[in-house]
Design goal:
Radius of gyration: 26 Å
Number of domains: 3
Shape: globular
Mean pLDDT: 88
Number of strands: 18
Strand order of the largest sheet: 9-4-1-11-10
Distance between the termini: 31 Å
Strand content: 25-35%
Length: about 400
């Protein structure tokens, strides 16, 4: 499913949690999952409020009085990593959380001129930030949302008081986190988009712009702290089923490695292992490496959650000592298998569509090969008859 965030008043961690709870995420289910993190001394509370005349849900992370000292703890990168890695959350959520916090620490380190391992996140590194970020990841997972989009972000303006003193709005870390993201300011003198909101939406959103094609199923509205005049301080989340175009657009991970010292017979076995473990495609490309040496580039396409397993296979089963990987987008036609009757028997045909218009059809090779052997006719003839029969039945 798709979630689209309409950020007319920016975005923050608590606004995302409010929108998720308003859309149907059980607060108790959220608390249960968050308890898998070794973070304590807080309460998660939700209430209905109005912002600019609109009803919304406000979710707050409230530190217990006796545990307010924790707000000065759990602030370095190594502390956050330990909490995440030792939790019993799903591996996918842990990996997403690690990447998000790494980006957050890197941004703070850059703007303050410090090393990443030395930087303190101040209030960002406190318990409420951990809960906001993992609460958002858990809530999206509970709603079965696999693709996130967002509108351009309203940043706000003015200044904000921090442990570093007065800083401009948007905060320097927020600006760095939103590189490449469309933003604007409506002139409200307030920090509308926080670093936590910025790192979450910039890490999770597939794109920023208009509402994507979808069938709307539900909505959720999360409230910010302030109630502004003339502008509702809310974050609206629209949830829906993917439209036909969206279903055929999907991000993939590309894994590559260059090899020039392996017995070519090994490639077949490696490719079989990779396909068995979920690779979408595996292919070899001849290349010329440094000093004119001939080599092979092994390329693998896979879903993001298969990446680590497939990299492990490559490093264990080949002579490669390292791989590179990156995200890529792909778009495919709608595909289905149809069984058609030919004078040589039934043959399966893979049919590809764009909307209702037939684009391409491909007779299945194995079916055609069996028919060619059985009837002692050329393989190309079987394939030709299968393609003609499909067009006739359509």
């Amino acid at each position: 499913m798709i979630a689209y965030f309409n950020c007319i008043s920016g975005i923050s961690g608590d606004m995302i949690l409010g929108a998720l709870v308003d859309a149907g995420v059980s607060l108790e289910a959220l608390k249960k999952e968050l308890s898998k993190l070794s973070v304590s001394g807080y309460e998660l509370k939700a209430k209905k409020v109005k912002r600019g005349g609109l009803r919304a849900t406000k979710v707050d992370v409230i530190l217990k009085k006796e545990d307010r000292s924790q707000k000065s703890e759990v602030r370095r990168c190594k502390d956050i990593e330990k909490i995440i890695k030792t939790s019993s959350l799903s591996q996918e959520i842990k990996e997403k959380g690690l990447l998000i916090f790494k980006r957050l620490f890197e941004a703070e380190a850059k703007v303050h001129g410090e090393k990443m391992q030395d930087v303190h996140l101040h209030e960002l590194g406190a318990v409420d930030c951990v809960v906001d970020i993992f609460g958002a990841l858990i809530g999206l997972d509970l709603l079965s949302i696999d693709t996130v989009y967002s509108s351009p972000l309203n940043l706000g303006s003015g200044t904000i008081k921090t442990e570093h003193g007065m800083l401009p709005v948007p905060a320097p870390a927020t600006v760095r986190l939103l590189k490449g993201v469309p933003v604007y300011s409506s002139g409200v003198q307030f920090e509308l988009t926080t670093p936590t909101g910025a790192v979450l939406i910039s890490s999770l959103a597939k794109g920023f712009g208009n509402v994507p094609e979808m069938e709307i199923l539900k909505t959720g509205t999360g409230a910010g702290d302030q109630d502004f005049k003339g502008q509702p301080n809310v974050l609206t989340m629209i949830i829906g089923e993917k439209g036909e175009e969206e279903k055929r657009e999907k991000g993939v991970t590309v894994i590559e490695t260059n090899i020039d010292d392996m017995n070519p017979q090994v490639y077949e076995y490696v490719m079989e292992r990779l396909f068995k473990e979920g690779a979408l495609d595996v292919f070899l490309t001849q290349i010329i490496m440094k000093k004119g040496r001939p080599g092979i580039k092994l390329s693998v396409l896979c879903d993001d959650n298969k990446r680590e397993k497939l990299i492990e296979i490559i490093l264990n089963e080949t002579t490669s000592i390292g791989v590179r990987f990156y995200r890529a987008e792909r778009k495919t036609l709608h595909r289905e298998i149809k069984s058609v009757n030919t004078s040589l028997g039934k043959v399966n045909v893979k049919v590809s569509y764009s909307g209702k218009k037939l684009k391409k059809d491909f007779p299945e090779y194995e079916d055609c090969r069996k028919a060619a052997r059985k009837h002692n006719v050329p393989l190309l003839e079987v394939m030709k008859r299968a393609a003609s029969s499909d067009k006739g039945q359509g």
